[in-house]
Amino acid sequence: MRPRIARFGGALAVGTALTLGLAACGGGSDTPKQDATGGGDAAAPASITVGFVGDLAGDNAAIVIPPRNGAQLAFDEYNAKNPKVKIEFKAYDSKGDASTAANLVKTAIQNDKISALIGPAFSGESQQVQPILEEAKIPSVSPSATRTDLASKGAKYWHRIVANDDVQGPGAAEFAGRAITAKKVFVIDDKSAYGQGLAQAVAKTMGEKGAEVQADSFEATETDFSAAVNKAAAFKPDFVFFGGYYAQGGPLLKQLRDKGVTGRFMSGDGSLHTKFIEGAGAQQAEGTLFSCPCKIAYAFAAKDEKAKTFTETFKTKFQGQLPEIYATEGYDAASTIIKAVEAGNTTPEKINEFIATADFEGLGKHVKYNPNGEIADTNVYIYQVKNGTVEAVGNSKDATLG
Questions:
Q1: For residue range 306-346, what is the model confidence (pLDDT) as tens digits?
Q2: What is the 3-state secondary structure (H, E, C) of the chain?
Q3: Does domain 166-292+380-395 have CATH number 3.40.50.2300?
Q4: Domain 8-164+316-368 maps to which CATH number in 3.40.50.1820, 3.40.1710.10, 3.40.50.2300, 3.90.1300.10?
Q5: pLDDT confidence of 190, banded at 50, 70, 90?
């Protein structure tokens, strides 16, 4: 996910600057991170630091704070066991800006000597940060960056624990084609690296299934969606898909309904948050569908004991907050690193080697990574707003609307 379009030039510039300081960073594989006791591979350090980068105070922070908290919960549970090597967890707020994320990661490597990173949360941030981490040889696991081409750069230290847009888009479209039998489809995106990729995947699949498809887009900072809304109203679609985030998705739906567009509305993981309902209004949001290559614990709590336990534990730790989107993925991303450390891997290089062989049953999915860093699990789940709350419908492959 990502709310701003990436600029590759910035990433390369930061990456080049970082190269000059790597010898002093202690973040590369040839210089294991050590503490005051002089630990390393031969003598394990007392602790290592793992970072988290994402939008913690920007417009779409509500879908980044849950994975941060999920990771925090996993590390706190691990440290409570008084392990030989503790894990310090430090979060960095990018406010959703890719250039800021790149600078923060440089600081995390140089000053805080991170041994691994969870994130970045958004795809645009990931595009700029990926070459920096690669140069420094710092392993990363993103809980939520879904842009497909992130896996095509040949990176050896990058991983994600969520399926990409070319998995989610067709999954959402296949479900819509089967459960809604949509014939006229209007697709809107926010021109972001995430939203555009997801919307295009949906449009392509719906078109291949025989639907008549029209599309429009607007900037990720836009608040007046009248141009797209008027175009949709004239087309009279029976299905509307939005590739973007809840901060715009909720108000967009409200404007569509106010204009008389009655077709079923669906969006992806970037909109899958209770704040979407607030933005649209409960009445307008009722029946809205969402797709996500993630398993939201509270939505599955009624039929999954692990999800129920995690929901209760999360709410207790975080003052009643629900484990919203990607809290589960944050927990499983942290668990990947924890298992590496438990196996005696404390340097970035050794942690990265372990991630490549990880194979365990996580909270939300089976955790195993392909050689290109993609998660092997490709399940996509459908959610629906019912009575003002988000409920699980089921796996996109066989889910039906009651």
A1: 999 999 999 999 999 999 999 999 999 999 999 999 999 99
A2: CCCCCCCHHHHHHHHHHHHHHHHHHCCCCCCCCCCCCCCCCCCCCCEEEEEEEECCCCCCHHHCHHHHHHHHHHHHHHHCCCCCCEEEEEEEECCCCHHHHHHHHHHHHHCCCCCEEECCCCHHHHHHHHHHHHHHCCCEEECCCCCHHHHHCCCCCEEECCCCHHHHHHHHHHHHHHHCCCCEEEEEECCCHHHHHHHHHHHHHHHHCCCEEEEEECCCCCCCCHHHHHHHHHHCCCEEEEECCHHHHHHHHHHHHHCCCCCEEEECHHHCCHHHHHHHCHHHHCCCEEEECCCCHHHHCCCCHHHHHHHHHHHHHCCCCCCCCCHHHHHHHHHHHHHHHHCCCCCHHHHHHHHHHCEEECCCCEEEECCCCCECCCCCEEEEEECCEEEEEEECCCCCCC
A3: yes
A4: 3.40.50.2300
A5: very high
